[in-house]
Amino acid sequence: MAKPLPLEALKAQADLPQNWMGRALAATPVVMTVIATLLAGLASSEMTKAQYQRSYAAQLQTRAGDQWSFFQAKRLRGEMQRNTIEILGGPASLAAVTVPALPEPPPAPAVSGDLQAAMDALRADAPAAVVNPLLLRLGDGALADALAAAKERSAAYDALTAPLVKELSAGVAAARLAFNAARYDEEARLTSQIARIYEVQVGKANAQAERHHLRSKRFFFGMLAAQAAVIVATFALAARQRNLLWGLAAGAGLIAVAFAIYVYLYV
């Protein structure tokens, strides 16, 4: 005689009715176990994404710091040129020389309203509750395009000024110093625009990390509710008063599922 399966033996001991109610009661622990496993996987996945975003934000912060260091170096070089002109005699030293006009940089690329709003909020040091929604609306592609455009503009300006710098290298010192002082100021401004876009990327990565961390925590709570449903449903199979216990298990399971759907869609 074939030995009954564990689930069949448990159903027989619990005197389960052979109808949809009995089948639902028998399947509840299995379904809730699957749901708990899925929620545990989602919680772990969201935590991994949060850690990745934190690491990526640190890399971007290093790049932003490099750009700000470059910005400071440009500003200092400009000040050094002006100080040297003062040593040579100030404005009087420029009276007898011709200083070439500084080329205009290429036109600034169009900046989307969302990106400009995020940059303004970061510069104003707005609270996270204000900045994060602005950052999360920005697409990664749009940020990458804005960064590439800013770098291309800076490189194009270097190409514009390179012939003049070479021409002045053998000319009068006062003219060369005045031109380079203005050039370094303009290059510093272009570099600061690159740094600010990097800062927006840093802020977005940190905002995404916080979002993933919150989702992970809430998926974990949903997993706990599903596991509680498994425990209650298991007791319901072994107890005579199964209607109340099964109702508690089903309610806990439905709450876990609804909570998980809410977190997945809206958090």
Dominant shape: rod-shaped
Structural class: mainly alpha
How much helicity do the residues have? Answer: over 70%
- Global mean pLDDT: 82
**Rg value:** 33 Å
First-last Cα distance = 55 Å
- The counted number of beta strands is 0
Low-confidence runs of at least 5 consecutive residues: none
Q: How big a fraction of the residues is strand? A: under 5%
Query: Main beta sheet, described?
Result: none
Account of the protein in words:
The mean pLDDT is about 80. It is built from 7 helices and no strands. The protein has one domain. With about 270 residues, it is an all-alpha fold. About 80% of the residues lie in helices and about 0% in strands. Helix 2 packs antiparallel against helix 6 and helix 2 packs parallel to helix 7.
Helix and strand topology:
Layout: H1 6-14, H2 20-88, H3 113-123, H4 128-136, H5 140-168, H6 173-238, H7 242-266
Helix pairs in contact: 2-6, 2-7, 3-4, 3-6, 4-6, 5-6, 6-7
